[in-house]
Automatic annotation (TrEMBL), chain A:
The keyword DNA damage belongs to this UniProt entry's keyword annotation: no
GO MF annotation list: oxidoreductase activity
Pfam families for this protein: Aldedh (PF00171)
Source organism, top-level taxon: Bacteria
Signal peptide: none
Gene3D superfamilies with a match to the protein in the record: Aldehyde Dehydrogenase, Chain A, domain 1
Key words, A-Z: Oxidoreductase
Protein name per its UniProtKB record: Aldehyde dehydrogenase
Domain Aldehyde dehydrogenase residue range list: 25-256
The keyword Transferase is assigned to this record: no
UniProtKB/TrEMBL annotation, chain B:
Entries under InterPro entries matching the protein: Ald_DH/histidinol_DH, Ald_DH_C, Ald_DH_CS_CYS, Ald_DH_N, Aldehyde_DH_dom
Highest taxon, organism lineage: Bacteria
CDD domains: ALDH_F16
Pfam families attached to this UniProt entry: Aldedh (PF00171)
Name of this chain's protein: Aldehyde dehydrogenase
Keywords: Oxidoreductase
Keyword Mitochondrion: no
UniProtKB/TrEMBL annotation, chain C:
EC number: 4.1.2.4
Keywords from the named record: Lyase, Schiff base
Pathway, per record: Carbohydrate degradation; 2-deoxy-D-ribose 1-phosphate degradation; D-glyceraldehyde 3-phosphate and acetaldehyde from 2-deoxy-alpha-D-ribose 1-phosphate: step 2/2
Single Gene Ontology BP annotation: deoxyribonucleotide catabolic process
Example of a GO MF term: deoxyribose-phosphate aldolase activity
Transmembrane feature ranges: none
GO cellular component: cytoplasm
Protein name per its UniProtKB record: Deoxyribose-phosphate aldolase
Catalytic reaction annotation: 2-deoxy-D-ribose 5-phosphate = D-glyceraldehyde 3-phosphate + acetaldehyde
SMART domains associated with the record: DeoC
């Protein structure tokens, strides 16, 4: 039977929250088009309540995920790369449509996104050694600084780079043990919603990554103001929205990662996501905890331990 | 406490410090009056004696100081790190030489005991400059990439509880990394920063690298919102910290905030009790409890609660409150009438809400601002005194039954700056420390500080770290 | 019979009960303990307070000679010094006791008769304590018969370090029984016990066994009295009185040579056990050279000029 004769099966794109695939509680969807304006799919248009539910899911997942061993998190992230590799063709298609790329360029983007998961999979059990360490205090104390995840991080995904940019902002957040509520690119949400399906089959515990699609400002505003969100990555916000959200985020002193650098047109999405990431996004959502304990000395004064 | 062994007065000599009747702002290497000629008085909180009259900076002065710092930045940041290091080493050494003078000055202006300024503040101030001096020519090795660049002009606003130490925490890393600074000390404790200006002069520090603006909150606000400031560093209240976080929204300013706390000091039933009692005392009565990382919530396991409370009350009865310049004074004056009123109001709230108050039996001097060491028992998580930062010598005592409950209660706060753990069981220390959402955890000790050790909070206690290698990041473009 | 407080009578019922009791005592954090002792060491004791402290310290001295070369002449000279420490100033208090070996106890008793200065004698095969129990008890009997008012015994550190706590306890009980009216000071030799946890446990064994004093050391090993180990023992007697009502004395011995040191120890007493212990009946210094330094400081306070070693007697 040839393709021409068969009617294709469309996919109903859904949110990814708490390891499940709900529709928006609002019942709303919006049209997603390709770069030429052709209809691709209807995506859920998330509401503030969807954002709230996603935060609850992310908070619930935080204890287990942050408490997992770094080795385990590394294996899970690597598993994401494996799963993505297996579904490469689907993502090449979605990225090509979303970003208006040729098939070969889209394939390169997907390859890079897979490799990015691999890069961050290797970081989980090294970042602590890079950013922590023993401090030689001037006294009889053992003093150790270790990085710990900040908590629940709201992530506004890049507006243009629908997969590589997306992966580049999610992976560092969860590599270090945070959990994420991700606001997908409003214009190009489909790779993000499909990524949810990959995460769901990759041993990533439900709630560690939650993905919402819709109007960025509508979802981001309640997240920025939410008292149980610890940090916000404003990468996908334009300058005006970023400022507004940063002000809201000050209410509970969220850690804020500003969009940077701002492009000439005021758009903040001029980042070259294919460049080597560095550690900046890993350390942005880490807290340093420093623990002191007395040591004493062996027999220096006869009775000293 | 009347005793057969009455310690005779042992006052440190005031004559080692010479306080001028008036001081100007320190801008571009010169002392200068405020543009509008405004001044304010600084008093000694233990006697209400006027110590000096200092210039009150306004927006025009802030602008002048930022311009001076900007002008100085080009050359200062271009200096080889090894040369910047030598300036900082000089400053560290001059502080050591003048430490007695500065300790007496700080005690006069702040009200804290000379024992603390002499044995804690000043040694830490010198050590902090010495530590960061060594970083200035080693930044390539700090883990922030090759040749990390400074940010530019740092606007720094510091509190009154450790005036000179907070200055050191701000200025030492800023200068080591090649930034220039405009610093505003608190209005109740301006003097040690002005003496520091003189130390910069003695050290030959280039003009404009350090500028000191004495003044009030309006000057602080003008400084942190000044468009030509690249870096904002603030230590103080969470309310002001939030306002600063809002004010820098949409700018490229890098911000670090060290804010409030409500530290939990957790005592398990297998704790070294005598040392735990000392740690509780140090935790909440060091510097009259005017410490952001104070262990202001005592969480004690119910099975040893009575024993610990009896020992604590007995110990508090031996604290010596009085003349801060007396070398035997343990508890000095509260820094200001305003702070005393805050503490008093919160303690009244505690009583009104049904917590049981106990204050150490000690006589309060007739002039100055004083508050007796106080603890509240029958406190629950719902009480104001268990949630709000009092910033005074007031301890709230809560109990718990299991380690899980202790951790849950400890973390049940908007703050996350410090915590203490007392137990002889090593694995419990590590397990509890791991679960506590606090930037500094002291196990079987409390209120220890060191320039090599990063300090800073989780949650609403602020962000960024000061001290150690971590402290460099706040002043580098990374 | 020893008067073990009823609250703790079970603790000494068996070796295992005693072990459980001792290991149930709160641990000691060494750094915290030493920091507290050092902090109290920064107290500035001046003028009238210093004068009070010097006189109190003199009155608390167990003026000690424990040499193989001791002779009756040496002991008599020391006794004279104890009764009248500063011939130039008769207001100087006498010392608490003269401390000698058992064979010198009679000489000391004769020399001190009627002076109010006590005769203390070390016993129990001091300083090592390595003799059979009956030999140790005979040693105690001898000293008491010779007129000793106070017996300074050493515990069996070998038994303690090998975990035979009940043996240590029972030996103290037996010695106490031999003491009769004499007060018993129990020496732990803290330098050999090595850890603060051990010193706390030894303190409780001593107190439970009926010691009148607990004492740090013999003066014959490398580490003797320190502010930290004395602070720890002061905490022990404080806690014991709080729980049993029985007050027990503390005697740091060895290594305390200067007025400054002695005043630091008195600050420890004042701010740990409290003023009830600021009395020769409850606190002693085991010392010899300390006395002359106290006397020189005393002269400085009364005359305003610094004294020198030629202005105090050498005995």
């Amino acid at each position: 039977m040839s393709d021409q004769n068969r009617l294709g099966v469309f996919k109903t794109y859904k949110l990814y929250v708490g390891g499940k695939f709900p529709r928006s509680e609002s019942g709303r969807v919006y049209e997603v088009t390709d770069s030429k304006g052709q209809w691709l799919a209807n995506a859920p248009q998330s509401s503030r309540k969807d954002a709230r539910d996603a935060v609850v899911a992310a908070r619930k997942a935080f204890g287990g995920w942050s408490g997992a061993t770094a080795y385990n998190r590394g294996q899970v992230l690597y598993r994401v790369a494996e799963m993505l590799e297996g579904r490469k063709e689907q993502f090449v298609r979605e990225v090509a449509a979303s970003e208006g790329l040729s098939k070969s360029k889209a394939a390169a983007v997907v390859d890079a996104a897979i490799d990015r998961w691999v890069w961050y999979a290797g970081w989980t059990d090294k970042i602590g050694q890079i950013s922590g360490g023993a401090n030689p205090v001037a006294g009889p104390f053992f003093n150790l600084s270790t990085p710990e995840p900040t908590g629940v991080v709201a992530v506004l995904a890049p507006r243009k780079s629908s997969l590589l940019g997306l992966v580049s902002v999610i992976a560092p957040v969860i590599a270090t043990g945070n959990t994420a509520v991700v606001v997908a690119s409003a214009d190009a949400p489909l790779p993000a919603l499909s990524l949810g399906e990959v995460l769901a089959t990759s041993d990533v515990p439900g709630g560690v990554v939650n993905i919402l699609s819709g109007v960025t400002a509508e979802i981001a505003a309640p997240l920025a103001a939410h008292q149980d969100v610890n940090a916000i990555d404003l990468t996908g916000a334009d300058a005006a929205l970023a400022k507004e959200l940063e002000i809201a985020a000050a209410d509970n002193l969220k850690r804020v990662l500003r969009p940077r650098p701002a492009g000439a047109d005021g758009a903040s999405d001029s980042t070259d996501w294919s460049a080597a990431p560095g550690t900046h996004r890993l350390t942005a959502f880490l807290e340093t905890k420093t623990v002191w304990h007395p040591t004493g000395a062996l027999g220096a004064s006869g009775s000293s331990y | 406490m009347a005793s057969a062994f009455e310690y005779a007065p042992a006052p440190e000599s005031r004559s080692v410090v010479d306080i001028a009747p008036s001081y100007g702002l320190f801008i571009d290497g010169e002392f200068t009056e405020a543009a509008d000629g405004k001044v304010f008085k600084t008093v000694s909180p233990s006697s209400e004696e006027v110590l000096s009259e200092v210039a009150r900076a306004g927006a025009a002065d802030v602008d002048r100081a930022v311009k001076a710092a900007r002008k100085a930045f080009e050359k200062w940041s271009a200096l080889p790190g090894s040369e910047r290091a030598k300036y900082l080493f000089r400053i560290a050494r001059i502080i050591q030489e003048r430490s007695r003078e500065l300790a007496v000055l700080e005690t006069l202006d702040n009200g804290k005991p000379i024992k603390e300024t002499r044995d804690a503040d000043l040694p830490l101030v010198a050590a902090h400059f010495f530590y960061y001096a060594g970083w200035a020519d080693k930044l390539d090795h700090a883990g922030y990439g090759a040749n990390p660049r400074p940010l530019g002009v740092a606007g720094q606003v510091i509190p009154w509880n450790f005036p000179l130490l907070m200055l050191a925490w701000k200025i030492a890393p800023a200068l080591a990394t090649g930034n220039t600074v405009v610093l505003k000390p608190a209005e109740t404790t301006p003097l040690s920063a002005l003496f520091f200006a003189d130390i910069c002069r003695q050290a030959g520090l280039p003009k404009g690298v350090v500028n000191i603006l004495t003044g009030y909150g309006d000057a602080g606000e003008a400084l942190v919102t000044h468009p030509d400031v690249d870096k904002v560093a603030f230590t103080g209240s969470t309310a002001v910290g939030k306002a600063i976080a809002r004010s820098v929204a949409g700018t490229d300013k890098k911000v670090t905030l060290e804010l409030g706390g409500k530290g939990a000091n957790i005592v398990f039933d297998d704790a070294p009790i005598d040392q735990a009692v000392e740690g509780i005392v140090t935790g909440i009565f060091f510097n009259q409890g005017q410490v952001c990382c104070a262990g202001s919530r005592l969480l004690v396991q119910e099975s040893v609660q009575d024993e610990v409370l009896d020992a604590l009350k007995r110990r508090l009865s031996t604290l010596r409150l009085g003349d801060p310049l007396d070398k035997n004074t343990d508890i000095g004056a509260i820094n200001s009438a305003e702070q005393l009123a805050r503490i008093t109001a919160l303690v009244e709230t505690g009583e009104a809400e049904g917590a049981e108050r106990w204050s150490a039996p000690c006589e309060l001097p007739s002039s100055g601002y004083w508050f007796a060491p106080t603890l509240f028992t029958n406190v629950t998580q719902a009480h104001t005194v268990a949630r709000d930062e009092i910033f005074g010598p007031v301890l709230s005592v809560l109990s718990f039954r299991t380690p899980d409950e202790a951790v849950a209660k400890a973390n049940n706060s908007q703050y996350g700056l410090s915590a203490g753990i007392w137990t002889e069981k090593g694995s419990r220390i590590l397990a509890v420390a791991n679960k506590l959402r606090a930037g500094v955890v002291w196990a079987n000790t409390f209120n220890k500080f060191d320039p090599t050790s990063p300090f800073g909070g989780y949650k609403e206690s602020g962000f960024g770290r000061e001290g150690g290698r971590h402290g460099l990041e706040a002043y580098l473009d990374v | 019979m020893p008067t073990t407080a009823p609250a703790f009578s079970d603790a000494t019922a068996s070796d295992s009960a005693l072990r459980r009791f001792l290991f149930g005592l709160p641990g000691v954090d060494a750094v915290g303990l030493e920091a507290r002792a050092a902090s109290l060491g920064t107290r500035s004791i001046k003028t009238t307070a210093k004068a009070y402290a010097i006189d109190l310290a003199i009155s608390m001295i167990d003026l000690t000679t424990l040499e193989g070369a001791d002779t009756p002449g040496k002991v008599r000279a020391l006794a004279a010094k104890a009764v009248n420490p500063d011939p130039t100033d008769r207001t100087t208090p006498r010392t608490a006791a003269v401390c000698v070996y058992p064979d010198m106890a009679a000489t000391a008793a004769a020399a001190l008769a009627g002076s109010g200065v006590k005769v203390a004698s070390v016993a129990t095969a001091f300083p090592a304590g390595r003799a059979a129990l009956d030999v140790k008890l005979a040693d105690v009997r001898d000293a008491v018969a010779a007129g000793a008012d106070e017996i300074d015994m050493v515990i069996d550190r070998g038994a303690f370090l090998s975990g035979r706590f009940l043996k240590v306890y029972e030996e103290i009980v037996a010695v106490k029984a031999e003491c009769g009216a004499a007060r018993l000071k129990v020496i732990f030799e803290t330098g050999e016990l090595s850890t603060y946890d051990n010193i706390r446990r030894a303190s409780w064994i001593g107190m439970l066994a009926g010691a009148d004093f607990i004492k740090t050391s013999t003066g014959k090993v490398a580490t003797n009295a320190t502010p930290a180990n004395t602070l720890l023992m002061l905490e022990a007697v404080r806690d014991f009185r709080a729980q049993t009502g029985t007050q027990i004395g503390v005697k740091p011995a060895g290594g305390i040579r200067t007025t400054k040191d002695a005043v630091k120890f008195l600050v420890l007493v004042n701010e740990t056990a409290g003023e009830d212990w600021l009395d020769p009946h409850w606190f002693r210094f085991g010392a010899s050279s300390l006395l002359n330094d106290l006397l020189m400081q005393r002269q400085k306070l009364s005359t305003g000029r610094y004294s020198g070693p030629d202005y105090v007697t050498v005995d």
